[in-house]
């Protein structure tokens, strides 16, 4: 059961990655993104009192996950 849950989480992250980095702005489906995020919230909830919930740490994890430096991120914004 745990492996099936982990597989589902990985698939959701992969789809989110695909939407985030591989489609044009016109093709982005906001509803799909919201649905994916809702599912991820259910499958791997974050305790809002934990250090993981800190926005700065979450942003750092985001940059690490996608291999972005501060310079790379600034170029994209």
What is the strand and helix layout of this fold?
Blueprint (H helix, E strand, L loop, with lengths): L1 H21 L7 H14 L11 H11 L4 H7 L1
Helix pairs in contact: 1-2
What features would you describe in this structure?
- The chain has about 80 residues and is mainly alpha-helical.
- The chain folds into two domains: about 1-45; about 50-75, no CATH class.
- About 70% of the residues lie in helices and about 0% in strands.
- It is built from four helices and no strands.
- It has helices at about 1-20, 30-45, 55-65, 70-75.
- α1 (about 1-20) runs antiparallel to α2 (about 30-45).
- The radius of gyration is 14 Å and the shape is globular.
Q: Which overall shape is indicated by the principal axes computed on the Cα atoms?
A: globular
Detail the poorly predicted runs. none
| Span between termini | 40 Å
H and E string: HHHH
E-strand count: 0
Rg from Cα? 14 Å
The largest pleated sheet is described as:
none
Helix content: 55-70%
Broad structural category? mainly alpha
Determine the mean pLDDT: 85
């Amino acid at each position: 059961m745990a492996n099936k849950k982990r597989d589902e989480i990985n698939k959701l992250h992969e789809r989110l990655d695909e939407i985030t980095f591989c489609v044009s702005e016109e093709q982005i489906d906001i509803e799909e993104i919201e649905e994916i995020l809702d599912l991820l919230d259910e499958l791997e909830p974050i305790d809002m009192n934990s250090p993981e919930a800190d926005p700065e740490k979450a942003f750092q994890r985001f940059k690490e996950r996608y291999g972005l430096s501060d310079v790379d991120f600034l170029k994209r914004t």
